[in-house]
Amino acid sequence: MQKEKTNKDQNHRGRGVWRAFLIICLIILVFLIVRRVTKPAEEIETVPLPTVSVTKATKGDIKVTTELIGNMQASDIYYVTPKVAGEIKEIYVEQGQQVSEGDPICRIDNDTQTDSAKISLDSAQVALNSAQSSLDRMTPLYQAGDVSAQSYEQAQTALESARLQYEAAKLAYDTQVDYATVKAPVNGTIESENMDINAMVSQSSQLCVISGDGAKTVSFGVTDRLLTALSQGDSITVTKQGSEYEGSITDIAGMPNDQTGLYEVKATVADNGAIPQGANVQVSFTSDRAEGAVILPMDAVYYDGGKTYVYTFEADPELSSNAGIVHKIQVETGINDGTYYEIKSGVSPDDDVILTWTQQLYEGAQVQLLTQAGTDATTVETDADAQTEASAEGEAAADETDNNNDETEAAEE
C-alpha cells in the first residue's frame, strides 16, 4: 500500500510539472502574439518611379559618308620634247619654276639645219627675183603685141611657181630658227627637268615635264559595292591639312584594276594650287542616302537576341501627369550616319521614344518623364520590408512553438 501511494504521489507531481511547463509555453506564445498585434504599424516606404527622357520619332533625310585615301595629280601633264635634234646651248628654267605659255625652256644649236634652210631660202629668193624681172620685161612687149599671149602666160606661171617655192623655203627656215628655242606649251609648273649644257638631244628626248595650272585631278579606288553609288558629276570633298576643297567626279572605270581589284575613280578639284602634285588626300563622298525617312538617335536603339528594339512611352491617366507605361517595340533599321538610324518599321512619327537607359526598362514598366527641374518624383507605395519583417517574426514564433511541442512530446514519452 505504501509503495502504491508513493507511485501515485510521483505521478501526480510529474503531471503537475508538465502542466506548469505547458502553461509557461502558452504564456510565451500569447506574449509573442500580443506583441505582434500591438506593435506599431510600420511606415510604408515610398520609392520613386524610374525617370526617363524621351524624343520624338521624326521624318528627315539621312546620308552615309564614306572616306577614302586619294592621290592628287595635275589634270594636264605635258612632256616637253624638242622638235629638232642638236646640242643644248642654253637652259632657261629649273625644277619648281612657274612658267607661262611661250616662255623659253632652252636653246638648241641646230646650225646645220638652219644653214641648209637658209641656203634653200636664198636660192628661192634668187629664182623669185629672176621670174619677177622676166615678167616685168615681157609685160610692155606683150602690150605692144611683140610677145605672144602664150609666152606671157608662161612667164606669169613661172613667177607664181617661184613665189610658192620662196614661201616654202622661208617657212622651213623660220621653222628651224623657231625650233632652236624650245618654249612652254602652257601656263604651269616645271615638275622635273632633264637638261644639261652641251648635251646632245634628239626629237624623242624628254627635256622637262610641266603640270598645267588648271584644276587638279584626284584619283581613288572603290569596291564594286561603292561603285553603284557613284555617277559622273557627283560631288566629292577633298581634305588636306584641315582645309577642304570641292570637286566633281569626271571618270569611273568600267573594269577593276588588276593589282588592287578596285575600280579607279577620277574627279577634278579646284585647289588653286594649294595641294602639291602626288600628295595623298582624304576623299569623302555620299555613298548611301534615305530621304524623308523616319529617323531616331542611335542612343534610342537597343539590340537583344539579334533583334533591334526601342522603348516607347505611353502616358497613363491613372498615374500622375508625367508618368506612363513602357512598351518594348521591335523595329527594322536601315542606314545610319553615326548619329541617327533610319527606322523602316516599328515606330511612326511623333511616337515618344525613350532615350534614357535603365535596368528597370521592360514591357509594362511604370516610369516618369524627366521634368524641367529634374527633381519632381512620382512615388509608389511598398510594404515589402514590413512584410519581410513580419514573415521573419512569424517564422521565429512558429519555430519556437515547434521546439516546445517537441520537448513536451519527449517529456511525455
Task: Explain the overall architecture.
By secondary structure, the protein is of the alpha+beta class. The protein has 4 domains: 2-43 and 383-412; 51-60 and 292-382, conserved putative lor/sdh protein from methanococcus maripaludis s2 fold (Beta Barrel), CATH 2.40.420.20; 66-75 and 215-289, Elongation Factor Tu (Ef-tu), domain 3 (Beta Barrel), CATH 2.40.30; 80-209, Beta Barrel (OB fold (Dihydrolipoamide Acetyltransferase, E2P)). The protein contains 5 helices and 25 strands. It has helices at 2-38, 111-144, 149-179, 224-227, 384-412, and strands at 45-48, 51-52, 54-56, 58-74, 77-80, 86-91, 98-99, 104-109, 181-183, 188-193, 200-201, 208-212, 216-222, 235-240, 243-252, 263-269, 280-297, 302-304, 307-315, 323-330, 332-336, 340-345, 352-354, 366-369, 379-382. A 6-stranded antiparallel beta barrel has the order 4-13-16-15-14-17. It has a 5-stranded mixed β-sheet with strand order 2-24-20-19-18, with no helix packed on it. A 4-stranded antiparallel β-sheet has the order 5-12-10-7, with no helix packed on it. Helix 2 runs antiparallel to helix 3. The longest helix has 37 residues, at 2-38. Residues 372-413 have low confidence and may be disordered.
